[in-house]
Every structure is written in C-alpha cells, then in structure tokens.
Amino acid sequence: MIELADVHKSFGKVEVLKGISASVAKSEVVCIVGPSGSGKSTILRCINGLESYDRGDIRVEGARVDRNAPSIVSIRTQVSMVFQRFNLFPHRTALENVIEGPVYVKKEPRAEALERGRALLAQVGLAEKADSYPPQLSGGQQQRVAIARALAMNPVAMLFDEPTSALDPEMVSEVLTVMRGLAEDGMTMVVVTHEMGFAREVGDTLVFMDEGIVVEQGAPRQVLANPRRPRTRSFLSKVL
Amino acid sequence: MQKFFSDAVEFVPILLQGVWLTIVVTIGSLVLSTVLGLFWALLRVSGVGVLVGLSAGLINVIRGIPIIVLLFYLYFVMPDFGIALTALQASILGLGIAYSAYQSENFRAGIEAIDKGQIEAAQTIGMGWWLTMRRVVLPQAVKIVLPPYGNIMIMLLKDSSQASTITVAELALQGKLIASSTFKNTSVFTLVALMYLTMSIPLILLVRHFEKKANRK
Predict the structure, then answer these.
(1) Which pLDDT value is given to residue B10?
(2) I want to staple B173 with a disulfide (CB 3.0 to 4.6 A). Which of A167, A210, B114, B164 is the partner?
(3) CA B5 to chain centroid
(4) d(CA A144, CA A174)
(5) Within 13 A of A132's CA, how many CA atoms are on the CB side?
(6) B143 → chain A, closest CA residue
(7) Helix spans in A3-86 (H)
(8) What is the CA radius of gyration of chain A?
(9) Per DSSP, what are the bridge partners of residue A20?
C-alpha cells in the first residue's frame, strides 16, 4: 500500500534520510523506533508530502508522492496524519475540528458529516466533549479528537508522529487504547513511537532507524528480544 | 468662557458639516486600506517569489512617500494623465493606499504568528493554500491583529485632516476657514480639537476592549 524505494532527503548539508526502502502492506501496523534525529518523523512527513524528498520514490497505492503536484491533495486525504502536538484548530469545537475536512475538502453534506463526526467522537470516547474547544480539553482528549479528525477523512492509512510524546504519563494509555482499537479494525498504520510496549503488542513490524538508515527490522517481539545489530542493542538497553 | 459658549453655538453647526466629511474620508480609506492591506499581506505570505518581491517593494514605496505628497499626486498630477478625481475621491484613495502599507505589515505579522503546526494540520486534511488561509489561519490571526488595527483606525481618523490640503472641507479645513474669517482662533481650534477627541474616544475604548479580549486568550 505504501512503498518507499531508496528515499534520500537532506536539510541543507545534513543528510537525514540516506536511502530508505520499506513497504507497508494493507492492515499492517509498522512501528518506527530510534533515537531522536534518526529521521523517523521525516519519513512520515515525506509520505504525505509535508516535506519533499530529494531522491528515490514514495508511492501510496501506486500513486507517486510529489508535494508540488496536484495529486498530493488526494494522497493527503487518503493518508491522514496525527501529530505529536495534536495541532487541533483552537478556534473550533471538537466536533467542528472533526468535520472540517469532510465538509470543506470533501464537500460532504454538513448534516451527514455532523452525524459521522459525532459517531467518531464516540468511537474515541469523547461523545460528551463534542462542543468543547481544544484548550478546554486535556492533552489525551485533544489527541483523541485529533485521531477522530484524521479518521473523518476515511483514510486508507494513518501516520502517527510520536502521538503520545507530549502527553502526561497517565494520559498515554487512553490514546494507545484508541490506536489499538484502530489496529484491530484493520487500519494500516505507520507509528513513530517510543512506546515499546505498544510496538510489541500491536505492531506487526518494528523498524529501528538510526542516522537516516534502517538498521534493523522484523517482528517486534523478535527485534526487541534478540536485536541482531549492536546499535539496536545499545539503543534498546537504554529505553527498555 | 461665556464667549466660548456663544462662539460654540454659532460655529458647531458649520463644523459638524466638516465632521461628516471627516467620517466619510476615514471610513472610506479604512475600508480601502484594509482590503488592499490584506491583499498585499496575502501576496507577501504566498511563498511565490515574484509576488513576495512585488508586495515587499510596493509597501516600501508607499511607506517612503509622505501622505501629503501622495494626495498632491493623485489630485494635481493625475489629471495630466487624463484621470481627474474629485477631492473626496483623491483623499480616500490616497489615504487608503498610504495606510494599506501599515495594514499589510500588521496583517502579515498576525498571519506569521500562527503556529506552523496549524498549517500542517490543514494540509494533512487536504486543504489547499486558500482554504487553509480562510478556515484556519485568518480566523486565528484576527485576534492578534485587532488591537493594532484599532490603533491604525485612530491614526487614520487624525490623518484624515490631511485631506484639507487638497480642498476637502473636512473638520480641520472647516475650522481653518472659520478661524481665518472670524479671527476667533482660540474658540474655533479648541472646538476642532474637542471634536476630534470626541470621535477618537469610542475608538480608544474599542482598542482597550480588543486588548482585553486578546489577553484573555
């Protein structure tokens, strides 16, 4: 569903992606872990065209990702993104945040979008917060609204950029529970995370990145229990 | 004091005609400068090199020319090119163009103050540039922009007196005409000053209201 072939990307003189190749199958949950600065987030941002890439090829269901081509709009509506810092629209209620894309981008009838928006908020456990504004919600609640907003676009895949890193510890699990539910429903997900427990239990594939390359990948239990590369081992010994 | 009040009774009706024109010039140029300023600001943040340069250059040219010279140009020079404007039209156009530079810089600052994450969130749900501006950036920028906008309104009200230099009989010119024909400078210009002040006070209160509202956020 998502194919990356030899993707290179530099910021100025710093090469942050040094030839990444990977593929994500339908309903697969891929967790990307690695130290900060390893290029994890940059990969996600390249997949939905928030960043350009210099070399290589990224395809979503066969369509090449090019942030300057008109086709990027349809790719972005198919691959939703959830950010570390939520990025909800603070001037709109939770429900308005959720229906913004369907109504203004997809031109769905407002009544239908509202109905589905309420259902999505219920799905993430926030039915009663539909009329709250983001600043009135806790971090965990905001992130769940952000997930509902991403789901409202009916995506074929979802990208999560450290979705729990900005949360207080007691709110992490409410977000992970929602994400676990999505995985069980068969959603294709690429998750950049530091939550090794989530990666082990929910992930189908774990990708360990460092300094712009994929150091190691495989079944999460296997990689976490028996890392083959020294670099993976030393990273995991610090975080587990 | 007695004398001042009897002068006031005599002059206020005439001065009020000037007040009317002052309000027309102020509101006219406020609307024009807002529309133009927003347009320049959107060019400036468009990310398209040519448009950014055009906007930046234009704003510097406008800022670098005194309002009075701009007014003279529109009223006295344009007829040579076959464009004859009435004094009122020229004053609204001149003040509107002059103030569009300040409006633009204010709007740009407001737009650039919006968190980049907001724009990325809009992009990831498929919004294009204009939809992102209209639905996400501008509604949030309004709160940031309003207090300075109120100050621009007050400055514009006072600067509308420059329209007197091209024969628009607004408040300042009415005052000057009465003063030079009656020699009652003290009474007349005190009245003129009080009238400008009276018009400014609601605007000053409005700015204070905007600032309170912005701080509450």
Answers:
(1) 86
(2) B164
(3) 33
(4) 8
(5) 13
(6) A91
(7) 40-47, 72-78
(8) 18
(9) A7
Q: Which residues of A touch B128 (CB under 8 A)?
A: 73
- Closest alpha carbon to A160 in A118, A128, A192: A192
Q: Are B125 and A90 an interchain contact pair (Cβ–Cβ within 8 Å)?
A: no
Enumerate residues 6+ apart whose C-beta is below 8 A from A185.
Answer: none
* Number of C-beta neighbours around residue A78 at 10 A: 18
Residue B217 is predicted with a pLDDT of 53
pLDDT of residue B201: 93
Instruction: State the Cα–Cα distance between residues A168 and A188, nearest whole angstrom.
Output: 26
Residue corresponding to tokens 């007196």: B161
Closest to A75 measured CA to CA, from A3, A10, A16, A124: A3
Give this prediction's pTM.
Answer: 0.85
To test the contact with chain B by mutation, choose from A78, A100, A154 the residue with the greatest count of B C-beta atoms within 10 A, namely A100
Between chains, do B128 and A104 touch, taking CB under 8 Å as contact?
Answer: no
Q: Express each pLDDT in B149-179 by its tens digit.
A: 999 999 999 999 999 999 998 999 999 999 9
Q: Which two tokens stand for residue A64?
A: 């090449």
Question: CA nearest A47 in B: which residue?
Answer: B124
**Vertex A240, ends A28 and A219: CA angle to 5°?**
25
pLDDT tens digits, one per residue of B186-216: 999 999 999 999 999 999 898 888 888 777 6
Cα–Cα dist A125/A148, whole Å: 10
The Cα A224–Cα A237 span in angstroms is: 10
Our CA angle for B157, B163, B168, nearest 5°, is 115
Work out the minimum CA distance from B79 to partner chain A, whole angstroms.
Answer: 47
Q: Distance (Å, rounded) from C-alpha A234 to C-alpha A213?
A: 16
Q: Measure CB to CB from residue A73 to each of B120, B121, B128 and give the nearest one.
A: B128
